[in-house]
Structure formats: C-alpha cells, structure tokens
Amino acid sequence: MKTLGIETSCDEISVSIVEDGKNILSNVVNSTAKIHSQYGGVFPELASRGAIELMIPTLEEALDLAQTKLEEIDLIAVTRGPGLIGSLLIGLNTAKTLSMSLNIPFVGVNHIEAHLYSAMMGQDIPQIFPSLGVVLSGGHTFLVKIKGVNDYEMIGQTVDDAIGEAFDKVANFLDFPYPGGPHIETLAKEGDPSKFSFQEGRVKKDPFSFSFSGLKTSVLYAIKGQKATKYSKTLIDEKEKKDIAASFQKTAFTDVVNKSLLAIEKHKLKAVYLGGGVCINQTLRSNFSSCVKDVPLFFAPKSLCSDNAAMIAGLGYHLFEKNPRSDSLDLEAMTKIPLTL
To answer: Is residue 110 located within the same domain as residue 139?
Structure first.
C-alpha cells in the first residue's frame, strides 16, 4: 500500500511516498529557513507563501524519485496540526484536492504524534510497549507513555519554551542566525561545559515537566550582564561564547535525560523512542546512550528528525489501518492540537 505524505506545519514543505508504513520510497524536504533567518525565527506569512510556491514542485519531485504515478497512490496522509495556520492550510487543501481528483481516501495526522512514530520507521526497529516517547523540537518538548501506536499517556511537557526554541534564542543572544541549534552544537564542541553553572528549570509539584525560560534568561545575563535585554551589548569574548554554549547545552540535555530516567523507573517502561529536530544533536544522543542502560534506546534516523512527510505517511498508514475510512473534506487545520484527538 502506497501512502503519499504531505507536511507543511511550519517552514518546511515536504512530500513523501511510503510503502506499508515504513518503506520510504522518497522523502523530499524543501525549507524556507533562509528567508526567516533575518527575523531570528519563522515569519508566518512568508512561510505560507513559501508553501504555496514549493508545494507542487515538491510533490512532483517526490513522485519522480519514488518512480510512482499519482494513479498508483492508495492513501494520502497530511499534517492537520499543530502548526502555523497558513502553512497547514496549503498542505491540507492539497491533500483534499488530490483525494477528490483521484477518488482515494485521505487522513489528517497529528504532527507531534508523527515525531514519535519517526523513531519506529526507516529502519528495522521493533515496537516495544509500554515505552517512553521523547519529542524534542523547536515547537514541542514532552515525555509520554506509549501504550501502542496512537495510544499515549502524557507524563510531562514544557510549561514555557520548547527546548529547540530555547536553543534558537540562545543562539540569537550569541549573534547567530535562525535556526540556532546547529550553531550552538558547533560552538559547544570547543567549549568547557563546566565553566558556567546554569540551573535546570523546575516546575513545582511536577517533577516530569520542563521549564527553559529561567535557563534562557540566565544565559542572557551571562552574555550581556544583569537585567540586560536581547538588544543589549555583548560583554563576552569568543572563547566565552563557546563555554556558554557548552554549559547551556549540558544543562538543557542533563535535564531531559534525568527526567527521562525518572519516568522510565516510575512507569516501568521497556524502551525509549526519541524524535524531533533536536534529536539530531550528537551530544544529546551520546548523553542518552551513556545514561540509559537498562532498556533499549531508539532514535529517529537523522533524516527523519526534522519536519518531514515520511513520518506523516508512515503514521497515516497505521491510522487508516486502524480505522479504514477517509476523513471528511470538512476536516479543519488546527494550530493547537492535543497528542491524541
């Protein structure tokens, strides 16, 4: 069964062809990130314009790489949320149009649920339940108990910034453009992670939830002085920038690893699946691999960590298998959406 996946939740425009939920025939991702770098983050109107311009060329490229014709597609899976409303509408309306013209079903997919599924596809990975799901991205940071595909129980989530958003903001403080994660990782490799004593965020009466706002502010003050704003003058030299990047990264990742270990123990979980753009970071992978010893650990392939349509197609296949009917053409895009709906 061939599923055509469409992902347009933010600044990536992606189309993928996936067989039987896991065999990726093509996965084309076109990004508008360079357009947004001058703004220090995603500019929603420009993201939706980029989706309009790139949607059809991306679709054609994905079909060509998969050596597949539209008439050979059995199912369409598309991100319905969460995300930027303008970008979401481009992908969703494309999926509806294809569904009507080809007379095949389509299913709306929860983008953050697809990040969990991405750690189960693209390679020969067993599905072990109950397990811990960890999503770390620019828009989301949470821990869930995975009881099965499309069956989750929230354990903890961020109460303010997502971890990827915190990386972007710290990079901006250090005068690096969006997206900031790769710049922080590169700087951190040459820095001393013990040079600055930043504190992990704590949420009262909730040991599993995250808060990166205080950490972000501490980093700002270390760079620009007490009570500074992001527009204040930088007071540190290039060597100290590297030390701050390393110290910030260590603190953020230690927080995630420690809460994951606590969740594994308390909920008696049998495996860990990790997805989301921050999971590309090699230091994060190394930290998890060195600390999680008693249960198997599965990272999404690096090509599937950032927003992509293969994970949408893969999860969409399972959703349709579970409930084999098309979504209504009245299905609406959702800027916010719970993990399960």
So the answer is: no
193 and 281 together in one domain? yes
Share of the chain above pLDDT 70, in %: 98
Question: Same domain, yes or no, for 109 and 141?
Answer: no
62 within a domain of the structure (yes/no):
yes
Q: Which residues contact 160 (CB under 8 A, 6 or more apart)?
A: 211, 212, 213
**What pTM, to 2 d.p., does this model score?**
0.93
Domain range enclosing 135: 129-300
Same domain for 40 and 144: no
Q: Number of structural domains, the chain?
A: 2
- Each residue's pLDDT tens digit, 50-68: 899 999 999 999 999 999 9
> How many whole angstroms separate alpha carbon 124 and alpha carbon 283?
24
Residue 284 sits in a domain of what CATH number? 3.30.420.40
